[in-house]
Write a structure and sequence with these properties.
Layout lengths: L7 E6 L5 E10 L5 E9 L1 H23 L3 E6 L4 E4 L1 H7 L3 H4 L10 H15 L4 E8 L5 E12 L5 E10 L1 H45 L6 H26 L5 E3 H15 L6 E9 L3 E3 H21 L6 E10 L5 E3 L2 E12 L16 H12 L3 E5 L4 E10 L10 E5 L1
Parallel strand pairs: 10-12
Antiparallel strand pairs: 1-2, 2-3, 4-5, 4-8, 6-7, 7-8, 9-11, 10-17, 12-14, 13-14, 14-16, 15-16
């Protein structure tokens, strides 16, 4: 050491188990004589702490690498900085293909909007859990349930997230299989109900024919009663037919149903030489469940039938108009339920209802049924007499009980 002039450091363990770091430094005193400074430092506690830290790191590394869940860490830009062996095995990529890549590269297109929405919450410190579909290297899907926790530095700045994902692919496949079975079951139910209602309609038609052939039956009201009952049965049968064609869904695309219902009524009523035109302005992609669609369909049936029967007496032409649209700026949320107000209008340019008669005074079975159905839907009905008759109904649907999706409207005329 004196010859080289270099310092040395070495470690010794005492018989008692203590660890000593020994440092030797060569130097010269004031008269130039070479000397050595020796310093001993007990580093036993530090060595023990380092050993515990290594053991702990090894233990947790083994836990993470052998976990049944995918574990990954992303930085604040959603770039992957760590993945465990499970993610490598389940997605089929190498470790190098993950590290440094954006997490979006491995997420299905349908889930990206949900991930972006939750990422904004995560940056505000919110932990989240949701279902996420990943895409394997071979293009197949891997459904997972994700639990993500945001990570922050000492200054409280967001630096990324740690996520744990559990494979739920088998569960999702089982759910899909059950959904297919349930949809087929509902489709079959709607098919049978539709057929049964058609049988009832045919029986009413046969019974009316018998009355028509009897010489002692002179009152046309008897035959009209049968036809009205038949129309009501058909209005319900059409709903089940539309649901059947839609694969047994619980909601009905209402505008196509109304078109078919009104077309059927147009062909049912024989008005001789009277030229009747139909005009329908129906907002598209409005879906109602059975609790809304059935009474609403019957209301349209009664009001349109009423126009056919009474509006154009003594006239050689006329028009019946039907409108369905969402009332603007009426979407609101309460108690996690989204509600929307709708307006349904059935009008004609016929002879109109006398000014001295109110809705309550229209004592026909059809109008009584309309009033009852509107009360059932908690709706409001308004009668106007401007150049004919106009019935306007306002009602509300909620997403909690009824899926209502509203798109663009289209104008159709006949």
């Amino acid at each position: 050491m004196l010859e080289t002039g270099q310092s040395h450091q070495w470690e010794v363990t005492t018989p008692e188990g203590s660890v000593i770091d020994i440092y030797s430094f060569p130097f010269t005193d004031v008269d130039g004589s070479p000397m050595i400074l020796k310093m001993d430092i007990d580093v036993t506690e530090r060595k023990q702490a380092e050993e515990k830290l290594r053991d702990s790191e090894e233990k947790y590394r083994n836990i993470v690498e052998t976990a049944n869940e995918i574990i990954l860490i992303t930085d604040k830009e959603s770039i992957i900085t760590y993945v465990n062996k499970k993610m490598v095995d389940m997605l089929g990529y190498t470790l190098e293909e993950f590290i440094g890549k954006p997490i979006w590269s491995f997420i299905s297109e349908e889930c990206k909007s949900v991930v972006k929405m939750n990422l904004e919450k995560r940056m505000r410190g919110v932990s989240e859990s949701y279902e996420l579909k990943l895409i394997r290297k071979d293009g197949s899907s891997l459904w997972t349930f994700l639990n993500a926790k945001p990570l922050f530095d000492k200054e409280g700045k967001y630096i990324g997230a740690m996520s744990m994902l559990t494979d739920i692919t088998k569960r999702k496949e089982a759910e899909e299989a059950l959904n297919i079975i349930e949809a087929a079951r509902k489709k079959e139910i709607h098919h049978r109900i539709k057929n049964n209602l058609q049988v009832i309609s045919s029986l009413l038609d046969l019974q009316a024919e018998q009355f028509r052939n009897r010489e002692n039956i002179k009152d046309s009201e008897v035959l009209e009663a049968f036809r009205e009952s038949q129309d009501r049965v058909v209005s319900m049968a059409l709903i089940h037919e539309e649901l059947y064609k839609g694969g047994g869904l619980e909601t009905l695309n209402f505008s196509p149903y109304i078109r078919e219902l009104v077309e059927n009524l147009f062909h049912t009523y024989s008005l001789g030489d009277i030229d009747i035109s139909l005009s329908m302005d129906l907002e598209e992609n409005v879906f109602f469940d059975m609790d809304t669609a059935v009474p609403l369909g019957m209301i349209v049936n009664e009001l349109v039938s009423n126009s056919f029967k009474h509006a154009f007496i003594g006239r050689d032409k006329g028009e019946i108009r039907i409108e369905l649209y969402r009332e603007e700026s009426t979407e609101f949320e309460s108690e996690n339920c989204k509600s929307t107000n709708f307006i349904l209008t059935v009008s004609d340019n016929g002879v109109g209802i006398p000014d001295n008669l109110n809705i309550e005074d229209l004592g026909s079975l059809g109008m009584q049924l309309v009033a009852s159905l509107i009360d059932q839907m908690n709706g409001e009905l308004e009668l106007k007499r401007n150049n004919g008759t106009e019935f306007t109904m306002k009602f509300t649907v909620t997403e909690k009980d009824n899926l209502a999706q509203v798109g663009l409207s289209s104008q159709e005329s006949r």
